[in-house]
Amino acid sequence: MKQTINLSQFMDGFTNEYSYRGLEYLFEHLSEVEEDCGLELEFDPVAIRCDYTECSALQLAEDYGFESSEEPESDEWYGELIQWLKRRGVWFVWVDDSTILYENF
């Protein structure tokens, strides 16, 4: 038996792992994956926490070994980070000016 959930029910499945805006983006992304792939995803907050992270861009860079000769958090540095993520095929979205939500890779 499957149950369709709305954004509010989705958000209730999480505590402090994601911001409100991050959860909105994540819900939208997972809904698009279902639609594009023609499948129904099981709502599994534990698996989602394992698959997606919201953190500062600097933290992502440190965690994954991104290196740049540009000043950290400068426009050029962000540009290089975006290209680095795209080359790796990583789904990501900016939650605000310095916070990123991404699929772990």
Key features of this structure:
105 residues; alpha+beta; 3-stranded antiparallel β-sheet; 3 strands; 50% helix; 12% strand; elongated
Radius of gyration (CA) equals 15 Å
Distance from first to last alpha carbon: 31 Å
Note poorly predicted spans. Answer: none
Please count the helical segments: 5
Number of separate structural domains: 1
**Percent strand:** 5-15%
- Give, in spatial order, the strands making up the sheet with the most strands: 1-3-2
Secondary-structure element order, N to C: HHHEHHEE
Helix coverage percent: 40-55%
Shape: elongated
Strands, total number: 3
The chain-level mean pLDDT equals: 95
How is the main sheet built? 3 strands, antiparallel
The helix-and-strand class reads: alpha+beta
Short description:
The protein is 50% helix and 12% strand. The chain contains five helices and three strands. A three-stranded antiparallel β-sheet has the order 1-3-2.
Describe this structure in words.
Strands 1-3-2 form a three-stranded antiparallel beta sheet. It is an alpha+beta fold. It is 50% helix and 12% strand. The chain is elongated and about 55 Å long. It has one domain. 14% of the residues are buried. It has five helices and three strands; from the N terminus they run H-H-H-E-H-H-E-E.
